[in-house]
């Protein structure tokens, strides 16, 4: 035992038993309370030093499975936080409500040292196990904590500096703890207070992202004391179901409610929104020209409301016929047709539509069909690929510029794409790739409905309908600080998710439609597809979706000499992978790779580590089920 550890043990004993209280008068009250809890409640003895306990892999997996997709949601926030502090020698950890580290990000160098210190996957940081630690204190108190060097109860950990903040779920249960720790901390505790602000900020972002994800079928209510900040960083979040009952609230609102309603003994979850606040959501939605407000206990809060995506209506025999452009996209998939019905119902309105889907899944085709189905059909449809315009040109391309506003500019000035869409539709493709500073400008255009060309002092009014599309998960981008939440709410009037080709249960129908389409565009006769060729295509994963399928069918139509399209008429990448003589099990390249990883224990362990120790994520990466991953893990580690 080191001399400084002996000194620390004496200090803790003296402090807890009160023989030398003055000597450590610098100890924070919350740390002192934790030390007392360690001794009196948890029965810990500072003389019995214990290294951090690391759970075996099987137990760790149980904790990771129990926390479900929370770690997936949290990961974007974790990575964004990690990027900011990785060069300063910190490790970032997420612990579950039992104090078990279920996800972590650290530099590769010094992994052994992180593990020995317990700053590692599977480590258990609960006060009753390890004494005072940042994770342990957050779990005990529900409050953020900085536990710096000698603040730790157990002298084993006095080399560490740890800062942690809680993440609550919408029922106000402590779901996880976000922690940032260093092995070789700088001397002063005060230096950790900026880390504390960072950790609190990211914990709040993760909490909001998880809230939005878990309540995507509910009405989302944002509340705050300042109207201007409501869309940027809402102080409070509420979720309300279609029956008007409150189904969730963020931690800040639970606390606010307890302060203001505690005396009347009212409950929050399950209570009727209208009963509690005296106004219904449809009433609040109907308020025009000003921010709606709510009064509660004599206080006024500004309100922002996002309705849930409308649930698919029950199939109805007398659903209205679709406009021809949308009808062209119809398929045997009834869910998709209901989506088209909803889109058709909004074709004549200015309600913004946000289309999500992988590349080539038909986002632009759908956007054009919406435009052509509405009362703007004879006005321009301007498509802007936000990812394709060089950053230095995007501003002048979108907003235009005044005559002579910069060197190299056209003397007469230039009309921007937004103005060019006046009266019609502006299609913002790849909106998730738009740089943050342009997002703020776009937000102003959408709020004010006017553009200010570069170098001009006069704003120009525009009348546009916005349709945006992206392959990104924008909520994850919001959590990672890459996309503005207020812009997201502006764009997301109606959300349409286009399934990838491999997820569609109407693949055969889609193939026939695309085949006819390709034949018509190339002046060819659509040939039938043989059963073998059909099987080859059904098995492929189609990362490029309909665009890739269309290209493959174009190749096949040009190559087919017989009456039918055969496997050998398909592009090489499809045919080669499925040639029966060379590849009897007809595995795709991806499944072969996955199999190689699964069957080689070191590769499997590496892949698991790369997936942050999360079996679900690894299973997704390998394109196999979770059970398959477990089976191989068990084989590779039979104990
Ligand atoms: N339902 C369909 N029927 C026939 N062809 C289709 C269909 N959907 C998409 N396509 C074709 O697939 C190609 C890709 O479609 P589109 O450009 O709309 O996809 P996208 O999702 O916008 O792609 P990206 O994200 O890469 O811009 C186009 O050539 C389009 O004509």
Automatic annotation (TrEMBL):
What SUPFAM superfamilies does UniProt report for this protein, alphabetically?
GAF domain-like, Homeodomain-like, P-loop containing nucleoside triphosphate hydrolases
Q: Which CDD domains match?
A: AAA
Q: What is this protein called?
A: Sigma-54 factor interaction domain-containing protein
Q: Which InterPro entries match?
A: AAA+_ATPase (IPR003593), AAA_lid_NorR (IPR058031), GAF (IPR003018), GAF-like_dom_sf (IPR029016), Homeodomain-like_sf (IPR009057), HTH_Fis (IPR002197), P-loop_NTPase (IPR027417), Sigma_54_int (IPR002078)
What GO biological process term is on the record, naming one? regulation of DNA-templated transcription
Q: What SMART domains does the database record attribute to this sequence?
A: AAA
GO molecular function of the protein, one example? ATP binding
Q: Mind telling me which PROSITE patterns this protein's record contains?
A: SIGMA54_INTERACT_1, SIGMA54_INTERACT_2, SIGMA54_INTERACT_3, SIGMA54_INTERACT_4
Under PANTHER family, the record lists: TRANSCRIPTIONAL REGULATORY PROTEIN
Query: Which Pfam families does this UniProt record tie to the protein?
Result: AAA_lid_14, GAF, HTH_8, Sigma54_activat
Q: Organism's domain of life?
A: Bacteria
Q: Describe the location of the Sigma-54 factor interaction domain by residue ranges.
A: 329-558
Which organism is this protein's natural source?
Neisseria dentiae
- What are the record keywords, sorted? ATP-binding, DNA-binding, Nucleotide-binding, Transcription, Transcription regulation
What residue ranges are annotated as transmembrane? none
